Amino acid sequence: MVGDRDAFLQRAPANILVKYRNDAGAVARVKHLLRSQNPDVWLDFDEVAQRFDLSASTLHRRIEAEGSRSRRSRTPSARKLRCTSCGPRT
Question: What are the domain boundaries of the chain?
Fold first, then answer.
């Protein structure tokens, strides 16, 4: 049994062993946009949607479909704090 598992894992493609990363999806596009800007001038959710020629509802649905959640912060400072979870700037 263990030998079968080990043999399977040796032949398995890497994408079944690690979480799939969609670099072309809505989440990646939003993160890229935010990382390319100074946090002091970040767009709000509706402006981001407009930048991608989408309604806010459509962008929200696409983000949720990718397994993430979008939350619309009520204040700019709350948005900036929350967006620090977007990861390190590169």
Answer: 20-86
